[in-house]
Design goal:
- The protein folds into 2 domains: about 1-90 and about 190-305, D-Maltodextrin-Binding Protein, domain 2, CATH 3.40.190; about 95-185, D-Maltodextrin-Binding Protein, domain 2 (3-Layer(aba) Sandwich), CATH 3.40.190.10.
- Helix content is about 40%, strand content about 20%.
- The chain has helices at about 15-20, 25-30, 40-50, 60-65, 120-130, 145-155, 165-175, 200-205, 205-225, 230-240, 245-255, 270-280, 300-305, and strands spanning about 1-10, 30-35, 55-60, 80-85, 95, 110-115, 140, 160-165, 175-180, 190-195.
- The radius of gyration is 18 Å and the shape is globular.
- The relative contact order is 0.20.
């Protein structure tokens, strides 16, 4: 039995992990899984690179950023991160204070993000630009992962931020404005993926394949319509901050392939292209066109039989 340390961003997208843990699917695949949630992307990247954690549930853009030396923190040597499996076709919601009803109302305000040069920040820059605002019209500060940002906005420290589920529905349920959503601009966007260091994966192929097998089992259970109520109950148990009155909206978004979990945990070529195009424009480096620099599906294919 191999022990695998997973670090993931908090959110409803972890439901397949919760399901696989509850049903013992990782153990059946020969893996003892320990899961930790990360306070921010920099902490996650540093500790994936140094081996404290073996696998990260992270934005695909984070993989690209660190491979290209454009991450929120400078890692030396450049880490050998790669995405081995997808997770979500994500919908990012721009939530704002209740009195902010239009993009014009954002002028002169301070917004919160995880970091200033990550893919989700790039999506927000693009949404703001397409709505007629320039970077001189607003300020963005690095605050941390979605729960931290949401609490900061809720407390009135910031005018708005981007959220994922369940925080989007929680914000809406508390009277905050959902000013816009990323899916209006990007019908395809590779959100979360699962990543590891190539050196660790090569030394621990069975552990990695065991994780993939357990996750795919949890994902299949989560996406089975027959399990919708049980899946909802499990999510509420694991994330008590979700109020039952918004659970239906959270699950509807999570179970939609347009805004949530990706069937079979596939990586989305069109969504990857969008990530690379945005980083090419906002990342300050060369134009990025080769997805194979950031993806290796050999372990996934060995499990999924592709």
């Amino acid at each position: 039995m191999s022990t695998v340390e997973l670090i993931a961003f908090p959110g409803a997208q972890n439901l397949p992990i919760f399901a696989a843990l509850e049903q013992g699917l990782f153990e059946k695949a020969g893996v003892t899984l320990n899961m930790t949630t990360t306070p921010n992307s920099a902490y996650q990247a540093e500790n994936l690179a140094n081996g404290k954690f073996h696998i990260a549930g992270t934005a695909f853009d984070n993989v690209v950023a660190y491979v290209e030396g454009q991450g929120a923190v400078k890692l030396d040597p450049v880490p050998d991160f790669f995405a081995f499996m997808g997770a979500t076709q994500i919908e990012l919601a721009f939530i704002t204070q209740a009195d902010v009803k239009t993009y014009a109302d954002v002028k002169g305000k301070v917004l919160a993000m995880d970091a200033l040069y990550t893919g989700f920040a790039f999506v927000l820059y693009e949404m703001l630009a397409k709505s007629g605002l320039t970077k001189a019209d607003y300020t963005i500060e690095p605050v941390g992962a979605t729960p931290v940002r949401w609490e900061a906005v809720k407390a009135g420290k910031y005018t708005g931020t981007l959220t994922i589920e369940p925080f989007t529905s929680i914000a809406r349920g508390n009277g905050f404005t959902v000013l816009d959503t990323s899916t209006k601009y990007y019908p395809d966007y590779q959100g979360q993926a699962y990543a590891a260091c190539a050196k660790w994966a090569a030394a621990n192929p069975e552990a990695l394949k065991g994780f993939i097998k357990g996750y795919l089992g949890g994902l299949a259970w989560t996406l089975d319509p027959a399990n919708k109520q049980a899946a909802t109950d499990l999510l509420l148990a694991k994330m008590p901050e979700i109020q039952p009155r918004v659970a239906g909206a959270v699950m509807a978004s999570l179970l939609s392939p347009k805004s949530g979990l990706t069937p079979k945990a596939a990586l989305l070529p069109a969504g990857i292209d969008v990530v690379l195009e945005l980083r090419s424009r906002f990342g300050g480096g060369a134009k990025l066109t080769d997805p194979s620099r950031y993806v290796d599906l050999q372990y996934y294919d060995a499990v999924a039989g592709v």
